Amino acid sequence: MWHIKKYDQLQLTELEQILKLRQSIFILEQESFFEDIDGNDQEAIHIFNKENGKVWAYTRILEYENHVILARVTVDKDKRGDGSGRKLLEYALNYLEDEFPTKDVHIVAMSYLRNFYQSFGFKTISEVYYMDNDPHEDMILTRLSDEVK
User: Fold this and answer.
1) CA nearest neighbour of 16 among 78, 77, 58
2) Most confident of the following: 12-21, 25-34, 72-81, 135-144
3) Helix (H, G, I), strand (E, B) or coil at 86
4) 61 vs 43, 53, 106, CA distance in Å?
């Protein structure tokens, strides 16, 4: 079941599961040693799915004046390859379309996921750069045509 919650709406067990999932993927699996708990969770909108009490898909949304950032997009490794990542992105983008229809969506993507994000309409807006020894690129999903902006 999909959930959309602000920080103060999260149950402690949900927060623990979210942080555990993020740690298991970003820190341990990808060996990216960075401050995952960065102070932004309190301002974020958290989208996640869980079954049997375990969070298996997660992303957070950070809102700014002219855009939103879709961050910490992750799916448990046991759920990869079955369309779960696509379901997460579809759900998150549908939410953004309803709640922030005029704001562009930004994402920092690992370069190997470029085609995945492009399939949703994201376009690369930076050169490839390295974070924690992994190639990344900035991508954007433009919400309004240039004529309307």
Assistant:
1) 58
2) 12-21
3) helix
4) 9, 22, 10
pLDDT in tens, 3-18: 999 999 999 999 999 9
Helices and strands (DSSP H and E) totals, the chain: 3, 8
On whether the 2-102 domain is CATH 3.60.15.10, my answer is no
- pTM for this model (two decimals): 0.90
Instruction: For residues 29 and 54, give the distance between their C-alpha atoms in angstroms, rounded to a whole number.
Output: 18
Q: What is the CA radius of gyration of the chain?
A: 15
Instruction: Count CB neighbours of 33 within 10 A.
Output: 10
Show me where the domains of the chain are located: 2-102
- Residue length of the chain: 149
Query: Which of 71, 72, 69 has its CA nearest to residue 22?
Result: 72
